[in-house]
Design brief:
645 residues; alpha/beta; Rossmann fold; five-stranded parallel beta sheet; five-stranded antiparallel beta sheet; 46% helix
Length: 645
């Protein structure tokens, strides 16, 4: 079966063209052919059809083979070009072959023409396949380059010497240059030596081991040190030999920072929970301890009252006991402050007034070798606070700063209006966003390491020598600030000083009224008091205190017994009850008593209360609370105040 073939003949002789056609037919081809004699006809033919082979006479009256071959090249067509001529010298034939002709024959010797055409068609097909493969490869490489260049990840390829062979555009953009400017250079051309050394060591480890390396490492972008997650793998040639390293990495700085913030937040929450637990423990200890101190105060005062005037030795010993009891009372107050169970008298105040009132005392307290600097913002927003408690917080912070500067230094106290946003609140548990007033206490002392900062607000934690401090000053400050719905934070580095920042919620206006002056109250009176206390020793002592001041006392060891007394008809003018008792607390008891004895007055005692509603009611003066431990005169004065009020 004949093979179809499209033949374009550049020939002025129709008979010679037919002779060539017969030669091709004899060789097994079925030619579809066309004859042209000049350049315009050839250009038109090339434009109209796709030809398998061009057979051209060397010399025509108006055209020749060299010119035809030139037109073929200008058309950028890969068509086998064979010269068939009646007279062509060897030199001209060689010139044609050099110009791109594929073969040549003499017209009287065309026996091999069919084989030549067969060969050239086969080679043309192979060239076409190669062109398609090359084009496909080019498109594939272009696609690969486009994909890689549009990746947000940075991609690079290095040789065995850690010299860049290629990189994508994202990598080059980090360095502020074009990819071509990176090729042929190593990391030392772009990065600080410590980073370049580390990158090169990783490259060589991958090449030597032939294994993947997955790391997080530092990276420099626009002079900013960031963190990247890098994966490096060996790069092989077609024989499987390792010829370099292929790397891809992405910026994980934001993720890493978010993780660090999450861990810091968890640490803060854990720290706060630990402080809460310690606070509950401290409050419970303070409650029991205060009951013991009531007994100690009452017993000492009773003994002193019965002591002969001339027994000065025993009187002195009892006074020593009272002095120790007073110091113990101060410690329990600090424990209660830490556990946020103190009774406050809050009103809206200007924090600048508190600082100004404390400054003169601070200058005497901390010594002349420490310079005290105050930077108070005018027009400071008011805060709802107990001024006396904040003064104590400021004094405690100043004393700690003094101890941190044994050779002198600077103590700076600042106030300012600030707005805490949601971002700050998210990173600082217990903080509510909104307008606040900040109190800053900053020293230039020896500072603290991170481990010390973790424990600095815990009660009895101290870095001072034994006997130099109780470890309650900062614990008390923490509790007071927290009870004011504020927050306190410490920032410090060894040898770079310490800064405490206290944030208190701002309120609308400052109270202009002062505290009403208290009129002296007479002690004593014949009124009957219903005393309710579950601790036998405390009940006995308080009963003696009341009796010593002329009161009649009805004792009840439980709230239930007190209700029975009220229901039984015995008259009494005042209910004096402990706040914390098993089964029924003081407020609940008072409600029961009021149902039975409308209008009866009440005075509550407490060495500790975990009920925030009680603290709020006391602060708002809804009822009167006598804090344990108390002396006989404290009790008598408070009883008289309630009865007369």
């Amino acid at each position: 079966m004949s093979r179809p073939i499209r033949v374009l003949m550049v020939e002025d002789s129709p008979s010679d063209a037919e002779l060539i056609v017969r030669v091709l037919q004899k060789a097994g081809f079925d030619p579809d052919w066309r004859r042209v004699e000049d350049a315009p006809e050839m250009m038109a033919a090339l434009a109209e059809h796709a030809w398998d082979v061009i057979i051209a006479d060397h010399n025509l009256p108006q055209f020749d083979a060299p010119r035809a071959l030139q037109l073929l090249r200008e058309a950028d067509l890969d068509i086998p070009f064979i010269v068939v001529s009646g007279s062509i010298g060897e030199e001209a034939a060689v010139a044609m072959m050099k110009s791109g002709a594929h073969d040549y024959f003499m017209k009287d010797r065309t026996a091999g023409l069919g084989s030549a055409v067969e060969r050239e068609l086969r080679e043309a097909e192979m060239r076409g396949e190669r062109r398609q493969a090359v084009e496909a490869l080019r498109k594939s490489e272009a696609l690969y380059r486009s994909l890689v260049d549009h990746l947000p990840q940075r991609v690079f390829l290095k040789d065995r010497g850690s010299v860049y062979i290629s990189c994508n555009r994202a990598y080059a953009q980090d360095l502020g240059i074009e990819p071509e400017q990176i090729v042929g250079k190593d990391d030392f051309a772009f990065y600080p030596r410590h980073l370049a050394d580390a990158y090169r060591a990783d490259d060589q480890a991958v090449i030597a081991s032939g294994r993947l390396k997955d790391i997080e490492e530092e990276y420099l972008i626009d002079a900013e040190t960031r963190w990247v997650h890098t994966v490096k793998v060996p790069y092989h040639d077609e024989r499987g030999a390792i010829i370099g390293v292929l790397g891809i990495f992405e910026d994980v700085t934001d993720r890493r920072r978010a993780e660090e913030e999450r861990q810091a937040l968890e640490t803060q929450i854990g720290h706060m929970q630990r402080l809460e637990s310690v606070g509950r423990l401290a409050g419970g200890v303070a409650h029991d301890f205060n009951n013991l101190l009531v007994v100690i105060f009452g017993a000492c005062e009773a003994a002193l009252a019965q002591l002969p005037p001339d027994d000065q030795s025993l009187r002195g010993r009892l006074m020593d006991v009272l002095g120790a009891a007073n110091r113990a009372r101060d410690l329990t107050k600090q424990l209660l402050a830490f556990s946020r169970r103190q009774v406050f008298k809050t009103r809206s105040i200007d924090l600048n007034d508190v600082v100004s009132g404390v400054l003169k005392m601070l200058r005497r307290l901390i010594g002349e070798d420490i310079e005290v600097i105050s930077v108070l913002e005018p027009g400071l927003a008011p805060v709802m606070a107990d001024a006396a408690q904040l003064e104590q917080v400021l004094v405690n912070l100043a004393v700690n700063a003094r101890d941190a500067m044994p050779s002198g230094g600077q103590l700076t106290i600042e106030t300012a209006n600030v707005a805490l946003d949601a971002g700050y609140a998210n990173n600082h548990p217990s903080v509510e966003p909104g307008p606040h007033v900040v109190l800053v206490v900053r020293d230039t002392g020896h500072g603290m390491d991170r481990e010390t900062q973790k424990h600095v607000f815990e009660p009895f934690f101290t870095t001072k020598e034994e006997g130099k401090g109780t470890g309650l000053g900062l614990a008390m400050a923490y509790g007071v600030v927290k009870q004011h719905n504020g927050s306190i934070w410490v920032y410090s580095e060894p040898d770079h000083g310490t800064t405490f920042k206290i944030y208190l919620p701002a309120v609308d206006q400052v109270s202009v009224e002062g505290l009403a002056p208290q009129k002296p109250r007479a002690a004593g009176g014949g009124e009957t008091v219903l005393l309710v206390e579950d601790d036998d020793a405390v009940r006995d002592v308080v009963s003696e205190m009341l009796t010593a001041h002329g009161h009649k006392v009805i004792e009840a060891e439980t709230p239930e017994r007190a209700v029975e007394v009220a229901a039984g008809g015995q008259e009494f003018a005042l209910l004096l009850t402990d706040m914390v008792m098993p089964g029924m607390n003081g407020r609940e008891l008072y409600r029961r008593i009021l149902d039975l004895r409308p209008g009866v007055k009440a005075l509550f005692m407490s060495g500790y209360t975990h009920d925030s509603a009680v603290l709020r009611d006391v602060a708002q003066e809804r009822f009167t609370l006598l804090e344990k431990p108390f002396t006989t005169s404290d009790l008598a004065s408070k009883v008289r105040e309630v009865l007369d009020g």
